[in-house]
Amino acid sequence: MAIKGNSTDNKTRNSVSIIIVVGLCCFFYLLGAWQRSGFGKGDSIAVEITKQTDCTSTPNLSFETHHSGASISDELKSPNFEPCDDSYIDYTPCQDQRRAMTFPRNNMIYRERHCPPDKEKMYCLIPAPKGYVAPFPWPKSRDYVPYANVPYKSLTVEKAVQNWVQYEGNVFRFPGGGTQFPQGADKYIDQLASVIPIANGTVRTALDTGCGVASWGAYLLKRNVLAMSFAPRDSHEAQVQFALERGVPAVIGVLGSIKLPYPSRSFDMAHCSRCLIPWGANGEKMEACVSPFPEVNNADEVAGGELKAFPERLYAVPPRISSGSVTGYSVESYQEENKIWKKHVLFYKKINKLLDTGRYRNIMDMNAGLGSFAAAIDSPNLWVMNVVPTIADTSTLGVIYERGLIGIYHDWCEAFSTYPRTYDLIHAYGVFSLYKDKCKMEDILLEMDRILRPEGAVIFRDEVDVLIKVKKMIGGMKWSSKLADHEDGPLVPEKILVAVKQYWVAGGKNKTAHI
Fold first, then answer.
1. How far is CA 70 from the centre of its chain?
2. Cβ-contact 204, 268 below 8 angstroms
3. Per the UniProt record, which residue ranges are transmembrane (predicted)?
4. What CA–CA distance (Å, rounded) separates 368 from 399?
5. Among candidate residues 205, 240, 239, the one with its CA nearest the CA of residue 223
6. How far is it, in rounded angstroms, from Cα 314 to Cα 454?
7. CB-based contacts of 497: which residues, under 8 Å, 6+ apart?
8. From CA 421, how far away is CA 142, in angstroms rounded?
């Protein structure tokens, strides 16, 4: 009996030992998983902020256009930015007319970008004109623009014969005419299509030099051709502003003494219809060389790589990726990034159910990478200006164009080449982490405010500590905001901050503020 009793005790001890070992293994497994998840260093702050700001949803943030921003409480103290003087309604910092006239006129230098020095930067909010309303939805916006939004009638007189724009009651009407096609851009494009393969997707991206009000680009859109239109800010007041108000891609620019900010092999088609470029001036001021194509192995190989017809081109592997020309990217990483951004955009649409309804026509991606956000959100209702920061580690703009998208290089320490109130939605992924120690956060945020339309939206995606600072600052910019968790849950340090610019217009006793 004694022997039997000892056997029972041993079995009991063994059972207890097994339970203890299993328990310890489970504990250390969970601890390891907790550490690998990133929850730890700095992320307790993230959870606390998540609790404070109710990150799980955005019920109090309205994306509708009703001329009153949604108010939410914010316990964080915010700097207060005052409205600029009403005379700055259409202020374009790097194309300011007064500053431009101090530069030489030869080679159109005075029409190029000339940004103000730090001591002349304005730290105030650009007001919208009195009576400003949300633009008409596309495609009505192609043909009609509210007069109150761009209150300039000069082009209706100067270009009356050419049928650019007509003033009718409280709206401008755009018949589609141009300097060389007064009967309308549609018929003109039909003529081009008789000799250029526009209809089959071979031509997807186009460059329109000296675009006027961008009717050529406007009518190409229904043929699934995306044009980058540009014109200077000159005596033809607000031509690029009209283009963007119509919902057509455009930037302020001139072909003068500086090369255009696009990589080689960007466009399938280029257009110059009486664009007034002095091609033969100064012994032909244009550089007497042609950008070389990449070498080929045989006569059948396409230099630079063959592009698929659009829309297949959007997700086909771009030649710059397949050839290994873009440092840090492979075919596999390109395809993986596309999957990630499809997931991100799907989550954005849950946060803001108006994303693909036509509410947001003009969209900007401030740090576009490979253009995967634009590809994931692609729709006939919208277009995306893909911006590749000049300080980015890798130049990816060529890939963006190979996908059949458009974009531009830009340094966000300076103002963008556009008029105020020209974008409906801005996507800012990692922008403030990228520009940390490069320029002040308020400089970038105030530029975003300048180009964002009243009641326009912003989607910030960044590390939580960065977004807390952003949230604090935009609290003093007449913006409403809400912090949301990453789609993979609250333990991920990267968060999403969604914001809406409130509706307000000129007319008060506004004073220009400087720091």
1. 23
2. yes
3. 15-34
4. 11
5. 205
6. 31
7. 458, 459, 460, 461, 462, 467, 470, 471, 481, 482, 483, 484
8. 17
Segments of the chain with pLDDT less than 50: 1-5, 34-57, 66-75, 512-515
Tokens for 89, please give them.
Answer: 């309604």
Residues 6+ apart with CB under 8 A from 265: 291, 293, 304, 398, 401, 402
Average pLDDT, the chain: 86
Among 347, 421, 480, 509, CA closest to 135: 421
Whose CA is closest to 395, among 415, 405, 409, 379?
409
Looking at residue 156, what is its pLDDT? 82
CA dihedral for 367, 368, 374, 375, sign (positive or negative) = negative
Output the six-digit token pair for 226: 């995306």
Place of tokens 């059949």: 404
Determine the Cα–Cα distance for residues 53 and 389; give it in Å rounded to an integer.
31
The residue written with tokens 């530029």 in the block is: 447
pLDDT of residue 272: 87
Residue type at 222 in one-letter notation: K
Query: Is 247 in contact with 138 (CB distance < 8 Å)?
Result: yes
| DSSP 8-state assignment for residue 37 | T
The span from the CA of 213 to the CA of 166, in Å, is: 12
CA atoms within 13 A on the CB side of 487: 13
The model's pLDDT over 118-170, given as tens digits with 9 standing for 90+, comes to: 999 999 999 999 999 999 999 999 999 999 999 988 888 887 777 889 999 99
Which residues neighbour 270 within 8 Å (Cβ) at sequence distance 6 or greater? 206, 207, 209
- Closest alpha carbon to 177 in 149, 151, 212, 147: 212
Q: For residue 258, give the nearest of 408, 113, 115 by alpha carbon.
A: 113
Cβ within 8 Å of residue 273, ≥6 positions away: 178, 179, 180, 181, 210, 216
Q: Which two tokens stand for residue 186?
A: 């549609």
User: Strands across the sheet with 452-463, in order?
Assistant: 406-410, 383-389, 362-365, 423-429, 452-463, 494-501, 479-484
Sign of CA dihedral 124, 126, 129, 130: negative
> Residue 215: beta bridge partners?
none
DSSP readout, 78-147? Answer: ---PPBPPGGGTT--GGG-HHHHTTS--GGGGGGS--PPPGGG---SBPPBPTT--PPPPTTHHHHEEEG
Report pTM: 0.84
CA angle 173, 177, 180 (to 5 degrees): 160
